[in-house]
Fold this sequence. Notes:
alpha+beta, Elongation Factor Tu (Ef-tu), domain 3, 6-stranded antiparallel beta barrel, 38% strand
Amino acid sequence: MVEEVAAVDAYAARVSAVVLEIEPDGLVLDRTVFYPRGGGQPGDTGFIRWDGGELVVTDTVRRNGRPVHVYADDPPSVGSEVEAEIDWERRYLLMRTHTALHSLSAIIWRDFDAKVTGGNMEPGAARMDFELEGISIEFGQQVEDKLNEELAVDHPVEILFLPRDEALADPDLIRTKVNLLPDFIDPIRIVHIVGLDKQADGGTHVASTSEVGTVRVVKTESKGKANKRIRIELT
Ligand SMILES: [Zn+2]
């Protein structure tokens, strides 16, 4: 089992580890702070350093259930002790962006009864699609105002690990299709923005919505009937 620090502590930027396995394009560590891409959040980038060497990690992906640190340099040998360090500035921006997206989806659900149909993010910018019949510039402005109002409220963000049975019985979580998660996932990791949103999620988030700062709705567009897209940027 690889110890995945990001799942419990998103603020850990660096960790000591041992190289478990070398793959043609990446390596597996026994412990890591790198987040493997998933749930719309890109994989972390950063560095792995060891006695006499260093490599640049250009992406992190999940393969056979384990985070693989993707690189293009010469790797250390299996069994080497290393320091793994993420590009913290990029990751922190992703944490702020991810929490902004969950807040956005919560507001659209709470005030407009519309579910999310898809989404994606890059550091500082994101898009999310909703089951909305119509959309307009005025609607985008209204959403932006509501979002910034909620972010400023300073809602704490908690990470919970709920037994599967308990998660499946929670009405807030059923809305986000927690029942569609594969059976073997137990307990289920939950990101709870207290007073605003609760959903099963593997990503990294800030500890409070106030850390997101303010957000701008930069574009609203129709992607078909009952599918409308909102693009946001962190300011
Ligand atoms: Zn998420």
